[in-house]
Amino acid sequence: MVEAGEQLGSQPRKRQKVDHDKAARIKKFRRGDPLATSKIPDKKLKGNLRYQERLANEAAELAAKADEWLLPGLAGALEADGMERTWRFKQDEVVREAEVGAARKVFDLSLTELGPYSVNFTRSGRFLALGGRKGHLAVMDWQRGKLITEIQVKETTRDIQFLHNETFFAAAQRKYVYIYDRNGVEVHCLKEHVEANCLDFLPHHFLLCSVGHPGVLRYQDTSTGQTAAAHRTRLGPCSTMRQNPWNAVLCLGHAAGTVTMWAPNMATPLVRLLCHRGPVKALAIDRDGHNMVTAGADGQVRVWDLRMLRPRHAYFSRATPDRLDISQRGLLAVGAARSIQVWQGALEHKVQSPYMRHDVYSGRLHDLAFCPYEDVLAAGHSEGLSTMLVPGAGEPNYDSRVADPFQGRKAKREQEVAQLLDKLQPDMIVLDPTTIGQVRKEPKQVQEEARLAALVAERTESRAALEKQAEKKKMKGKNKPSKRHRKKQYTIIEEHKVDAKGRAQKDKEFGKTEKNAEDSLPDDAPRALAAFYQKGRK
Amino acid sequence: MRIKAINRSEEECTRERSQDLQKVHKNLDPSLHPLEKATEYTRALNAAKLERIFAKPFVAAFAHDDGITCLAKNPQRLNSLIAGSADGDIRLWDIPSRRCLRRLVGHTAGVKGVAATPSGDACVSCSTDCTVRLWRIPAAGMQPAAEPQEAQAALEFHGANGFRAIDHHWQGDRFATAGAQVDVWDHARSEPMSTFRWGAESALSVRFNPVEPEIFTSTGSDRSIALYDLRSSTPIRKLIMQTRSNAIAWNPLEAFNFTVASEDCNLYTYDMRKLDMAACLHQDFVSAVMDLDYSPTGREFVAGSYDRSVRMFSYNGGHSKEVFHTKRMQRVFSVRFSADGSYVFSGSDDMNVRIWKADASAPLGKLLPRQKQTQAYNQALIRRFKHLPEINRIVRHRHVPKPIYKAGKLRRTIVDADARKLQNVMKHSKPGSVKVKPARQKKIVGQEE
């Protein structure tokens, strides 16, 4: 990086224009620090790595260029003039000032009878699933106002979740979790997911996760139908669950104020964070996996640095927040009772005032969800569904291979196949996904410990095996006590042999015998005669 | 207030007519593509598995009436192959249409060597009936011929003893034969232009250097490899090894390097300027290596062995990267790489010339640009992740016939036992007293000038 020259004395030197913007863009696409190749002793490897670095740099520069010039859309923004503040604007004014196409996305659905509604969007943001507590399930193409399917399951439904696309959605009903088709047909009844409170879907792994009253976290592979893992959290009923989109780790909020992070591989949580004094009411994680926001019954809304697992700052809210959500561009929505507050830039630094505010016209807030790739926040409440325009929330430029709001039928078919081909295995879920493919040399200490542990295990196993074939009392024929005794002695000798080997290994590793021998052995003597040079030997 | 919100119009983001191409939007932001490494790893794993699934290297077999002893490729045409068999019959094959164009009849004993002239319209063959014959060979026409025509030799050269091998120079009208001695002939002369002899041994194979016009090598039955210069009358240098070398080939792109196929189941690559140690040792065969040929890229070579298999090695790789075998293929006596580097020809004792794909999983025929891109992507993925254990296991895995597998296992046990015993000897003797020669130098007995 070329730094701008300092102006010392009276000689003005030519300044080199530093394009911070371009450098930041290149850094974004570089994916890690450049490798120092000068110290590598192996010439072939060094040459290869330098070539790879050159390719990576070129790729980052080209990507930065494309990012700067070729992206069609610009992010939304709301700015106030003069003394006005953005959080004073009512939604009506905002909608009036906005373009017709954007204003059309703000609506209220009045569904008063069937209970507070849970809201879920597909990854592309085109389809919306509504799940009313009294069993009203609906899927709609919300921007065009088209209802895809609507069913009444006549049971308490606590959560709703789309699977890999809009063809299937899962509903956490009174006892079990059910999966429905886009025609409203019940396709599966997942009897193992008992009394689920929350559902989530890991799109890259095709894992449907549920946690509920028994406090058991279950991972179910929806492409093969196998249960990938079932972990007993042992922390009581859980009703708050979110996935970290960056590493596909699930974060659960518990009644004791702890947040635990889980992966299918480990039966114990990867991380345990004590976040609040009192139950954790809501959780949200941003797209890059940098920040996590938790809301507790103590009224605190804390922001955590997820990479370092440290708290950043906290906000206080008088009303206990019911729900949190973070948009693609890092806007935080806090829903408490009836009011929704949207905060901008609140994750990196502590901000004094919100960005926008809105009160739901009636009823109590139940669920909040930002629509991907749109500047819209959907709020499910006890009287139905309301949407709110939040300029700057959504990512303006989508990638067709990832999620396309205007996907055709053929593209949808192809994408489903591509998703299945790229399906990741559940044991690949780790806290830091960049470690895959890295070569880590284990320190010698760790290798030794592993070897010793294996040895001890082998010894105990052989001892157990010997005990197992302990002497059987013969009932048929001769069974003289002297013979039995001799047999017993034989097994003892075997055991001693095993033990002796173990002792020799142990001595060797603590450098007892061999080291002493080596110390006293003169240089010109052959090693076979080491025994004669031992100290204390006459 | 100033407000701007995302407002996408469907008309702008999708195509106008169904004849138009679909609009594809790209955003390379890493935040939109989480879990990239895991996805790449999964794709690499799938690519490795698919590569093994589609690995079907055998293409075709051409039948002769007796075991095939020698092969030659035409330097001017990709579609023709000349194969000589042990009953004196030489056949000219048109490979794409899989038919025999000509049968060159004339030799009364087994044909030991065949080579094509640089112009591509003639070939020379040598036999144990003490003659070398020159034949005119036609190009393959478009119309299918009913029966392969028979043809007579255009020229005949007589020698005193039977010939073992022949190689034609890549420029002009000279060719060299190996037999009781190494002779260099010209088309216009009925007697050899020059004769090279060193010691009382016979020469087994001969090869001209593809870049230096005057240099060629030969292997002899006294376990030697000799370097000759056409301008001088005697050989310049001789390298003696522990076992006899059956064949020799020059690297077409690094023409100072040559590889020999030895009786001790290994192949050795030497730099002709520095013969005191081999540049590389190639191991994997379990019986004598009979023939080898380099790819025109110079990055790999193929070798055939007495153990009924054909293996492909990287030019600097110690172990084979591909193995070709069939139940019906018996002892392989000659192999050739096709001139475009895509196919391998092997002639064996079971009277068949077999054609194999050099890249076993590559599809034949013309690929669409998108297919080519997918192939390139899959190969790049495998290259990036091939050191990881799961993928390494799949990429390296080759089925090998049971006798070869068992023999290889036995050899490894013996080698490991020898290494262990050597370690013990070294441990119990004075440090520095036991001198270990590197494997690349162990088999060299000496050099002579």
TrEMBL record, chain A:
Keyword entries, A-Z: Nucleus, Repeat, rRNA processing, WD repeat
Compositional bias annotation for Basic and acidic residues: 459-472, 493-518
Lineage top rank: taxon: Eukaryota
WD repeats: 273-307
Keyword Ligase: no
Gene Ontology annotations of biological process type: maturation of SSU-rRNA from tricistronic rRNA transcript (SSU-rRNA, 5.8S rRNA, LSU-rRNA)
GO cellular component terms attached to this protein's record: 90S preribosome; small-subunit processome
SUPFAM superfamilies: WD40 repeat-like (SSF50978)
Cellular compartment(s): Nucleus, Nucleolus
Location of the BING4 C-terminal domain: 354-433
Name of the protein this chain belongs to: BING4 C-terminal domain-containing protein
Species, as recorded: Apatococcus fuscideae
UniProtKB/TrEMBL annotation, chain B:
BP term (GO), one: maturation of SSU-rRNA from tricistronic rRNA transcript (SSU-rRNA, 5.8S rRNA, LSU-rRNA)
SMART domains: WD40 (SM00320)
Keyword 4Fe-4S in annotation: no
UniProt keyword annotations, A-Z: Nucleus, Repeat, Ribonucleoprotein, WD repeat
Domain Sof1-like protein: 358-444
Keyword Ribonucleoprotein in annotation: yes
WD repeats: from-to residues: 61-103, 104-137, 325-366
Coiled-coil segments on the chain, per record: none
Region (Disordered): 428-449
Family assignment from sequence similarity: Belongs to the WD repeat DCAF13/WDSOF1 family.
Alphabetized PANTHER family for the sequence: DDB1- AND CUL4-ASSOCIATED FACTOR 13 (PTHR22851:SF0), U3 SMALL NUCLEOLAR RNA U3 SNORNA ASSOCIATED PROTEIN (PTHR22851)
Protein name: DDB1- and CUL4-associated factor 13
Lineage start: Eukaryota, Viridiplantae, Chlorophyta, core chlorophytes, Trebouxiophyceae
